[in-house]
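Structure ticket #2291
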Amino acid sequence: MNTFSKLGAATLLLGASGIACAQSSVTISGVIDTGFGYTSNAGTGTQTKVGMLNSILGVSNVGFRGKEDLGGGLNAVFNLQAGFNPTNGSQSASGQLFSRNSLVGLESSSGALTVGKQWNFNDDWLVGSVFKGGYNSGAIFKFSEFDAVSEIYNNTIKYVSPEVGGFQGGVMYGFGEAAGSLRTGQVYNIAAKYAQGPFFVGITFDREQDATVGLTNTGNVLKLTTLGASYTINALKLRLGAARSDISGPGSFQSIPSLPTARKAYAVEAGVDYTFTPAFTGSADVIYRKNTTLSNNTKVYRLLGIYSLSKRTSLIANLAYLSNGDGATESLISTNSTAIGGGYANQHQTALALGIRHTF
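Resolution: structure written out below.
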């Protein structure tokens, strides 16, 4: 059975379950995000690339979210999201049907406990509210040491506390699934946030263990600390976020590629959003990355405009400029280079995206 046959069958089954049980609800929703893109210094590092884009602000997906009232304030919940590429209809992650969420669990006034394939708290609470999204549009999590700023993990158990006085916390643990070793490939993510009126602040800590099985396991660890805050004044929103990455050496990690040596780096993003009219919002961001081990740096400057045609449909314009220094090899759009970061040393790159985003 092909992917779309599976999705069709899943839709019918979920729809039937919603009809059969009056205390259950199933919502089908999604987003289609696509457009046209121009990139300089692509390919061999000096070529221009023009073409269609599969993602400007986020990966297109269709999802099924459900809730069943079990009584006494306890609910069973599930969330399934299938990512796809609208330009050709393929899966966004090859071989993974529900690549954007696949979880089931329980929630009550005491919080929510879910299991499955789930996003970390960085993505839940900081991406969008502090860090601008869009993997190929100039986002902080495109940098080679900082992909875990927005990452989804397999085999996880996740607890989210209720919100009390603006405070909320959470913890997520991921099993490495290696026989004979609980530590191999394990992941955990701890987070806390405070939101009250116009002010928001959140902090998260991620730790990911080398998942290599057997004697070649290095025991190396990726650690990431992320902090972000925002403040809204009428039509103006100010955002400031920072992340520090500490990678002890090569290894098989879910969030980043294996690096040849130990590396430490930090990144800072400062941004502003302004609602010019009820239909149009403009944003400006500056991101600075510094690898303190290799003593190289990268800067990204980004402008984003979103014009709403309706509650569900928006036009998007995104312009980003990246500049590498002291041998850095980061990129906005990956080139033919095999270097970590996808770019060529000291390369600069400009990327323009014009598109449409529809939610349903």
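Closing remark: The radius of gyration is 21 Å.
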